[in-house]
């Protein structure tokens, strides 16, 4: 499981020209789901991303998490984060979680996120989405869970 966190001053996602989710300051989280990922791993990832300190404290140091900063979270499924790019010039998706399982785990993750934090917005699993953001910093981190 991979989560690409981007600290944003605003972010939104559109499907078919209509905005389906947006936040002001907070985190845009692009979520990639791999074979072997499950609800326990999703819970661990949510714990980590909600506690990850990427917002400035009163001294200007990255010591605050999204809740302490009063920010929102926009969660977007990103199949391509699961690509194996180690060989050749074309990505392989053999390590990605199959679509039906990935959709179920994405929706589980979204529900758990909504229970733990507010505000939360989301993309639409499997849709052709246009994601807009203003990366604040820029600040971007790739979170990966070690087994």
TrEMBL record:
<keyword id="KW-0378">Hydrolase</keyword>
<dbReference type="GO" id="GO:0019478">
    <property type="term" value="P:D-amino acid catabolic process"/>
</dbReference>
<feature type="short sequence motif" description="Gly-cisPro motif, important for rejection of L-amino acids">
    <location>
        <begin position="137"/>
        <end position="138"/>
    </location>
</feature>
<dbReference type="InterPro" id="IPR023509">
    <property type="entry name" value="DTD-like_sf"/>
</dbReference>
<keyword id="KW-0694">RNA-binding</keyword>
<keyword id="KW-0820">tRNA-binding</keyword>
<dbReference type="Pfam" id="PF02580">
    <property type="entry name" value="Tyr_Deacylase"/>
</dbReference>
<dbReference type="GO" id="GO:0106026">
    <property type="term" value="F:Gly-tRNA(Ala) deacylase activity"/>
</dbReference>
<comment type="subunit">
    <text>Homodimer.</text>
</comment>
<protein>
    <recommendedName>
        <fullName>D-aminoacyl-tRNA deacylase</fullName>
        <ecNumber>3.1.1.96</ecNumber>
        <ecNumber>3.1.1.-</ecNumber>
    </recommendedName>
</protein>
<comment type="function">
    <text>An aminoacyl-tRNA editing enzyme that deacylates mischarged D-aminoacyl-tRNAs. Also deacylates mischarged glycyl-tRNA(Ala), protecting cells against glycine mischarging by AlaRS. Acts via tRNA-based rather than protein-based catalysis; rejects L-amino acids rather than detecting D-amino acids in the active site. By recycling D-aminoacyl-tRNA to D-amino acids and free tRNA molecules, this enzyme counteracts the toxicity associated with the formation of D-aminoacyl-tRNA entities in vivo and helps enforce protein L-homochirality.</text>
</comment>
<keyword id="KW-0963">Cytoplasm</keyword>
<dbReference type="GO" id="GO:0000049">
    <property type="term" value="F:tRNA binding"/>
</dbReference>
<comment type="similarity">
    <text>Belongs to the DTD family.</text>
</comment>
<dbReference type="GO" id="GO:0043908">
    <property type="term" value="F:Ser(Gly)-tRNA(Ala) hydrolase activity"/>
</dbReference>
<dbReference type="GO" id="GO:0051500">
    <property type="term" value="F:D-tyrosyl-tRNA(Tyr) deacylase activity"/>
</dbReference>
<dbReference type="GO" id="GO:0005737">
    <property type="term" value="C:cytoplasm"/>
</dbReference>
<dbReference type="InterPro" id="IPR003732">
    <property type="entry name" value="Daa-tRNA_deacyls_DTD"/>
</dbReference>
């Amino acid at each position: 499981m991979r989560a690409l966190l981007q600290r944003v001053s605003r972010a939104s996602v559109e499907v078919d020209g209509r905005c389906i989710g947006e936040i002001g300051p907070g985190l845009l989280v692009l979520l990639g789901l791999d074979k072997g990922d499950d609800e326990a791993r999703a819970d661990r990832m949510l714990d980590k991303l909600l506690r990850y300190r990427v917002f400035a404290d009163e001294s200007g140091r990255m010591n605050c998490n999204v809740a302490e900063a009063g920010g929102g979270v926009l969660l977007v499924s990103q199949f391509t984060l699961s690509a194996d790019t180690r060989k050749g010039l074309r990505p392989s998706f053999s390590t990605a979680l199959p679509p039906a399982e990935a959709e179920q785990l994405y929706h589980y993750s979204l529900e758990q996120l909504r229970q733990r934090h507010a505000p939360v917005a989301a993309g639409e699993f499997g849709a052709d989405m246009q994601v807009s953001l203003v990366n604040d910093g820029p600040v971007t981190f790739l979170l990966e869970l070690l087994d």
